[in-house]
Amino acid sequence: MSEWVVRMSNSKGMPYFYNTTTKQSVWEAPSGLSKEQVQALPGAQEYLSGSASGGGGAAGQIRASHLLIKHKDSRRPSSWKEANITRTKEEAINTLREYQAQIGSSTDTFAELAREHSDCSSHAHDGDLGWFGRGQMQKAFEDGAYALEAGQISDVISSDSGVHLILRTG
């Protein structure tokens, strides 16, 4: 049996391969393993979404997390936190800028703040939206997410849902 397993990086939010014998970790599938062997590794079904390389979902898909702050002009001005959101868009942007300053480039802080403060139900998963492709998200959000490299955090992005910080994770 292989000593390789698939794990999820807490800092990057991306899957990696870990050798339980040598304690080595790598981002790409270990050489010498077939696609079928990689898919059979412990953790592969949970973290690889059908990819043998650990690179993610189906072709053209990306993975992202976000921290959403809604405002009174959002398409649904309510959330798990507030039944009736009355803040202005400017107030929402200011709040998000405060979070942005706390986050810096820390994906761990991003996840913590998304869990505590995001107005999206994805807060329960540290803001993780999973894998998605073109045409599945609102255009402004999609354009912002696709413009990022894995591990990068966007500036404030406005969509019909509210204002977001986006962390591309895959």
TrEMBL record:
<dbReference type="InterPro" id="IPR000297">
    <property type="entry name" value="PPIase_PpiC"/>
</dbReference>
<dbReference type="InterPro" id="IPR051370">
    <property type="entry name" value="PPIase_Pin1"/>
</dbReference>
<dbReference type="GO" id="GO:0003755">
    <property type="term" value="F:peptidyl-prolyl cis-trans isomerase activity"/>
</dbReference>
<dbReference type="GO" id="GO:0005634">
    <property type="term" value="C:nucleus"/>
</dbReference>
<dbReference type="GO" id="GO:0060261">
    <property type="term" value="P:positive regulation of transcription initiation by RNA polymerase II"/>
</dbReference>
<dbReference type="InterPro" id="IPR046357">
    <property type="entry name" value="PPIase_dom_sf"/>
</dbReference>
<dbReference type="InterPro" id="IPR001202">
    <property type="entry name" value="WW_dom"/>
</dbReference>
<dbReference type="Pfam" id="PF00639">
    <property type="entry name" value="Rotamase"/>
</dbReference>
<feature type="domain" description="PpiC">
    <location>
        <begin position="59"/>
        <end position="170"/>
    </location>
</feature>
<keyword id="KW-0413">Isomerase</keyword>
<keyword id="KW-0697">Rotamase</keyword>
<dbReference type="GO" id="GO:0005829">
    <property type="term" value="C:cytosol"/>
</dbReference>
<dbReference type="InterPro" id="IPR036020">
    <property type="entry name" value="WW_dom_sf"/>
</dbReference>
<protein>
    <recommendedName>
        <fullName>Peptidyl-prolyl cis-trans isomerase</fullName>
        <ecNumber>5.2.1.8</ecNumber>
    </recommendedName>
</protein>
<feature type="domain" description="WW">
    <location>
        <begin position="1"/>
        <end position="32"/>
    </location>
</feature>
<dbReference type="Pfam" id="PF00397">
    <property type="entry name" value="WW"/>
</dbReference>
